[in-house]
């Protein structure tokens, strides 16, 4: 069947065009997408040709990973249900991760409509809340994971590196668990959107020393959302004994972390990635009850036909940008 998609044809080349998808079968359903939420960091990495797939960096000799339909999160309305699918019906409002596609470097697609998907990739949306609030559910769930994994007690200090979407949601989740959160970032406009704790501008003095002054007994939780080994080392220098580090960034091929230094304080390290139905459900509930805020982080909405303009903005940062929605 035919569909429309946002295609990365080559490095830094974005087009909105017709694509081919497999015809749906009895165990699948078809969704008309209304909105998709761009994952700025991950998809930018794809657009630059840095990834073979989700967590695998392109290495010398690997084939160019194009063309590809990036993305992994969207909302829409069910328009067709296969005879073997019993948990959905036409008209349901749903969230979808990836969909099937043909003729691309990967057989999975994010920004595509209609979406041919298996039930395992589809989740019903609660009623009464703007569906766009859930359009970035996978990425929101990564922030949830960052904030939910660490061991902490109410009042424990936590430092999050990165003022992007994952950093924002990680900070929100840690604050909801009672942590005293410091969000460190490079963009004052983004930091201004974080209301759950203190913020520090990375380029304004030495944030490490400021954190050490504020928490002389050390930090319990440190989260790197930007994929920086330097950030991991800086966090290590602020941690208390038996503290907990979380890594949620993409380090590319430069991902060799020396473990021995982290043994001196007997730190734990969690590596978060991907999604599970259980975590998506927990994240959806936290969005529904207001614990995790998503709509206030949206800065731009583009008609999907102008996706290339959205990507020019994300890559150039010619104006303050954070959450970017494609309207279908």
Description:
Its cofactor is Zn(2+). Belongs to the zinc-containing alcohol dehydrogenase family. Pfam families: ADH_N, ADH_zinc_N. One of its GO terms (molecular function) is metal ion binding. Keywords: Metal-binding, Oxidoreductase, Zinc. This protein has 9 helices and 20 strands. It is about 25% helix and about 30% strand. It has about 325 residues and is α/β, with parallel strands linked by helices. β13 (about 155-160), α3 (about 165-175) and β14 form a beta-alpha-beta unit. The longest helix is centred in the middle third of the chain and has 12 residues, at about 135-150. The protein folds into 2 domains: about 1-135 and about 295-325, Medium-chain alcohol dehydrogenases, catalytic domain (Quinone Oxidoreductase, Chain A, domain 1); about 140-270, Rossmann fold. α2 (about 135-150) packs across α3 (about 165-175) and α2 crosses α8. Strands 3, 6, 7, 11, 12, 19 and 20 form a 7-stranded mixed beta sheet that branches. It has helices spanning about 40-45, 135-150, 165-175, 190, 205-215, 230-240, 260-265, 275-290, 305-315, and strands at about 1-10, 15-20, 30-35, 50-55, 55, 75-80, 95, 100, 110, 110-115, 115, 120-125, 155-160, 180-185, 200, 220-225, 240-245, 270, 300-305, 325. It is globular and about 60 Å long.
Give the helix/strand layout.
Layout: E1 2-10, E2 13-20, E3 29-37, H1 40-47, E4 51-53, E5 56-57, E6 74-81, E7 93-96, E8 99-100, E9 108-109, E10 112-113, E11 115-117, E12 122-124, H2 137-148, E13 157-161, H3 165-176, E14 180-185, H4 188-191, E15 198-201, H5 207-214, E16 219-224, H6 229-238, E17 239-247, H7 260-263, E18 268-271, H8 277-288, E19 298-303, H9 307-316, E20 323-327
Parallel strand pairs: 13-14, 13-16, 14-15, 16-17, 17-18, 19-20
Antiparallel strand pairs: 1-2, 1-10, 3-6, 3-11, 3-20, 4-5, 6-7, 7-12, 8-9
Helix pairs in contact: 2-3, 2-8
Organism: Pelagicoccus mobilis
Cofactor: Zn(2+)
Protein name: Zinc-binding dehydrogenase
